[in-house]
Amino acid sequence: MKRLLVLAAAATAMFANAQAQTFPGSRAVTFVVPFAAGGPTDRVARDLAEAMRKSMGGGANFVVENVNGAGGTIGATKVAKAAPDGHTLLLFHIGMAATPALYRKLQYKPLEDFEFLGMINEVPMTLIGKPQLPANNYRDFENYIRANAGKLNIAHAGLGSASHLCGLMWQSAVKASEAMTTIPFGGTAPAMNALVGGQVDLMCDQTTNTVGQIEAGRVKAFAVTTAKPLSGNKLLKDYPTLQEMGLKGFDLTIWHGLYAPKGTPPAVLTQLNNALKVALKDPDFIKKQEGLGAVVVNDKRVEPAAHKAFVAAEIAKIKPVVEAAGKFAD
Ligand code: MLT
């Protein structure tokens, strides 16, 4: 019996090695994006797919599949339960750390059900309003919010999403929580359409999705969520930080990472992580991301262990905040 077990283990290892040698082969590698197409997470995924196609020598095919809903947890669940063969990956943001606190019946455990492939970027957020909103700077905007308590609404991409978290943090910082109705969408792409159309009043969203709309004058911007002004971005450098507007300690940046189902062969994980690291140094990828206000990660967090440690720290940071607020998604 012991001999059989050894043989079986050897056979499994040999199969995994054979699998790794042929990975990815002709089958595409799918990035599951847990939000709607056209939004900020989708944008990062499509730019990264292009860069990883190049970094894996053109033979590999990377595609994006949008599986949205429930603040990103539906897409994440799909990958947690997918075959651990390297062909189904999850590209997710701070929601990976926030959803375990907000969803008590989550069908996955981020630190147990996934392999960590490395961090990708960090994206500031912007507080924006519909074009008709009668305010042209943050002070007038905040006064308008106070003067119209209970009459305004704020859009987001589902409980636990980045836009939801930012909206929650801002409303509690300005003590306007009771003032606004929250309107969920499957992502900030559809939410942005509603904002540009004037169907919703305001939103907090990632610069990768707002820069184009602000530049075109289709939405009004009032402030950025980072601790420091975005002096490196020609469009965003003139917007104040929320801290400069008196919201002490307000500092929110959205990070994105790449994940594989638990049990994906180590050799496949190494191939994917190597391809990711090369892609993160790709000048085209960097230029695209920086043009949209994002910063591409180039520190130890591109390594799986440091990526996992970072997410574990974020989970530990967010959990008590959510529990203190006592607002859960389920
Ligand atoms: C999106 O891609 O739609 C966003 O990342 C959603 C969000 O978390 O706000």
Question: Could you outline the blueprint of secondary structure elements for this entry?
Answer:
Layout: H1 2-22, E1 29-33, H2 40-55, E2 62-66, H3 73-80, E3 88-92, H4 95-102, H5 110-113, E4 114-129, H6 138-147, E5 152-156, H7 162-173, E6 180-184, H8 188-196, E7 202-206, H9 207-215, E8 220-224, E9 253-261, H10 266-279, H11 283-291, E10 295-296, H12 304-325
Parallel strand pairs: 1-2, 1-3, 5-6, 5-7
Antiparallel strand pairs: 3-9, 4-7, 4-8, 4-9, 4-10
Helix pairs in contact: 1-10, 2-10, 2-11, 4-12
The protein binds D-malate.
Can you describe this structure?
- The protein is 43% helix and 19% strand.
- Strands 1, 2, 3, 4, 5, 6, 7, 8, 9 and 10 form a 10-stranded mixed beta sheet that branches.
- Strand 1, helix 2 and strand 2 form a beta-alpha-beta unit.
- The model has no long low-confidence stretch (mean pLDDT 93).
- It has 12 helices and 10 strands.
- Helix 1 (2-22) packs parallel to helix 10, helix 2 runs antiparallel to helix 11 (283-291) and helix 4 (95-102) runs parallel beside helix 12.
- The protein has 330 residues and is an alpha/beta fold.
- Bound molecules: D-malate (MLT).
- D-malate binds at residues 35-36, 39-42, 93, 95, 157, 161-163, 187-189.
- Residues 35-36, 39-42, 93, 95, 157, 161-163, 187-189 line the site of D-malate (MLT).
Class from helix and strand fractions: alpha/beta
Order of helices and strands: HEHEHEHHEHEHEHEHEEHHEH
**Main sheet record:** 10 strands, mixed
Proportion of residues in helical segments: 40-55%
* Cα gyration radius (Å): 21 Å
* Structure summary, number of beta strands: 10
Q: Regarding quaternary structure, how should these chains be classified?
A: single chain
